[in-house]
Amino acid sequence: MSPTSHLRELDLLRKQVADLTRELRDRDQIFRERTSEIDELQDLRERSNMLRAIVTSTAGETGENYFPTLVCHLSAVLGVQYALVGEIQQSPIRKIRTVAASAGGSLVDNFEYPLMNTPCETALGQSFACFERDVRTVFPLFGRLAQLGVEGYCGVPLRAKGGAVIGLLVLMDTKPLRNTERLKSLMAVIASRAGAELQRRQAEAKLNQQQGHLREAQALAHLGSWDWDINSGIVQWSEELFRIFGYEPGSIVVTYDTFVAAVHRDDRDRVVKAINDALAGGGVYDVECRIVRPHGEIRVIYCRGEVVRGTNDRPDSMSSSVLDITERKQGWEELRPSQDQLRQALHASSTGLWSWNIETNEVVFSEEWKQQLGYEQTEIPDLFESWMMLLHPDDRKGASAYAQRYVNAPEGDYRQAFRMRHKNGAYRWIEARASFVSEVDGRRIRLLGSHTDITDRKQMEQTIRESEERYRTLVELSPSGVFVVCEGRIVYVNRTGTLLMGAQDPQEILDRPTFEFIHPDYHHEVRESVKRLLGGGVSVHSAERVYVRMDGTTIPVQVEAGRIMWDGKPAILGMFADIT
Predict the structure, then answer these.
(1) Which fold has domain 222-348?
(2) How does pLDDT run across 393-426, given as a tens digit for each residue?
(3) Does domain 478-578 have CATH number 3.30.540.10?
(4) 3-state per-residue secondary structure call for 463-525
(5) Contacts of 213 by beta carbon, 8 Å cutoff, 6+ apart
(6) Which of the four pLDDT bands, split at 50, 70 and 90, describes residue 35?
(7) Is the pTM of this model over 0.85?
(8) How large is the greatest C-alpha to C-alpha distance in the chain, in angstroms?
(9) Rounded to whole angstroms, how far apart are CA atoms 390 and 300?
């Protein structure tokens, strides 16, 4: 072989080796990309399974039960030693007070600790804070970490509507944390509902405190109240009303006849007529009468009640306030302390009074009416225009038009809600109620009413609506099928569930019997599972089943189900995924 031909053969061999090397490199790159895609898919599936398990376990829980259920399932599903939810306490020093905490999957007593020099202080200022390992070394002054043997920590802030940070969701483990990106995405989803639930919990606590103040105020003012559900006959008395009638609170079962029987026999017909007139269409009854206590003591009460009507204009219920005015009848000097007590009651219950003479346009606002908006008695003139100027611009036209319509045609109750500007610039929601009172000469030219601050109630209602909307969106976007069964029929199915069952529109599935979509081999097992869930024997059920699609084909699925309430009825919430 000549040197020239040898070189040509060598060059050809080098080219073949280079081509083979390039092909091997390309195949290796494709293999790595496919491996990465498989890993990402597996991670996504694991995230979905974890999220599904947590959402299913907490779906039927609200209020006080939500947070204990959440922390126990977080630690169990995510495999961490500790999980807690805490709310921020502002005084006298900034600290965290837990509302639920679990250790090793079991609930522990709540506790509190100062925020300074803790990882929680860092987490509150970030969207997600994570210390995968050696967190005790980073925060040596926070001794609780050492006591618990904590090695890894991650936390996310819980926010109220508007973005204010009100609490914290924390996971900790005695070993370094793994898959922190997965933890970050899962905790971000969970924190959304947890923040709404925490805000609702705080709003309910504040509302309960106000109701406690109202009970105390009623006791101070000897002001009782009762509610009568006309359809069911159920009557509820406030604690103070029991005392006014001479009973210990809750010591007897009360009915409408209990009230009537206690009225002095000489006043009874007049009182019953006033109530019947209100039920027949008068709307409001206003009467003063005597009552006889069990031991014969006679007291004088002032009663004012109003009727609530349904869509067919039939009376549904009646609410009434009862003021013990015995002492006023005994003399003006003895009445003055009672007036002070009534003023305290109005102040404690955030209620202001007003009077409007529609002939002279003369207006009188009580001291509580002005204090409700942050003003002193002399800072707001008693003028109709004062009310108009304080109304929210968007509510001014509607509120004034309603008032004018009522004056022109005073039928039923005067009742409307609007926003009014507080002295600090914020707007407060106010509910106004009123009715005409008769002058000495019988003319009805003066409207006497009240203003009650309902801002907290409005905010709580808004928070609940937003929480429900977020949860509905989460369910609709879930990669798993979600359904609700009530009284044996499907009353809800999300988009994923619709497609998995071979339908194009949820309406094809809704209101159909559940067992149409379950393979006959599993009917007995499903009936037993439903019976245990609805009977309270288990809270969450997990099983593999075979479902029947719209076209008759079958699909193996993994199902998790739990008991919920749907329109006031017990129901089953289920999540299922194709495990083909």
Answers:
(1) Beta-Lactamase (3.30.450)
(2) 999 999 999 999 998 988 888 999 999 999 999 9
(3) no
(4) HHHHHHHHHHHHHHCCCCEEEEEECCEEEEECHHHHHHCCCCCHHHCCCCEHHHHECHHHHHH
(5) 348, 349
(6) low
(7) no
(8) 141
(9) 39
